[in-house]
Amino acid sequence: MTLRTTQLLFYLFLALTLPAGAEEADRPLQGTVSWVYDGDTLKIEPHGKVRLIGIDTPEREASERDRYLARQGVSPRQQRKIYERAKQFNIKNVKGKAVSLTFDHTTRDRHGRLLAYVYLADGRLLNQILLKQGLAVVYRRFDFLMKDAFLKAEATAHAQQIGLWATSP
To answer: Do the domain assignments include residue 95?
Structure first.
């Protein structure tokens, strides 16, 4: 066996034995948003379904996940309204646009979706923009690198009473 053949076999072995998604953690990926499912889930070509790390937006219909926001004083009616606003915000600002994806400790969730920080062409972070607009809350269940910055962005929106935190419907 030649040295080149040995090297190729080694790289093939490495690619086959890496955990799913491990290759994605090393470098930003580029893509185009082709579909907006809701405020925190997008389809980004050629990578597929992407869940925004560290944030949670209200669901289209009432669910168990509403309880956290209800305890924060956000009515179910306000949650449905913000669901639509977050989705429309993404349609207007990212659908059809080029984005960059970076990753954290875990690159995929239990549903197989990529977990990513999504950066716009101008360098702004979509995950954080949604928090600042009051269209999302910090997903507190898991730890992630930008959690402190995200908590500050959410607190600012709350203090300014915008989006989810608006006092009038």
So the answer is: yes
Domain housing 85 = 24-164
Q: What ranges in 55-166 are assigned the alpha helix state H?
A: 66-71, 76-93, 126-132, 147-160
pLDDT, tens digit (0-9, with 9 covering 90-100), for 5-26: 444 443 444 344 334 444 445 6
Give me the sign of the Cα torsion angle 135, 137, 139, 144: positive
Reference 26, options 135, 104, 87, 94; nearest CA is 104
Query: How many structural domains comprise the chain?
Result: 1
* Cα separation values, 1 from 19, 28, 64, Å: 28, 35, 59
| pTM attached to this predicted model | 0.82
CB neighbours (10 Å) of residue 27?
Answer: 10
Give the type of residue at 21. G
Domain CATH number, residue 94: 2.40.50.90
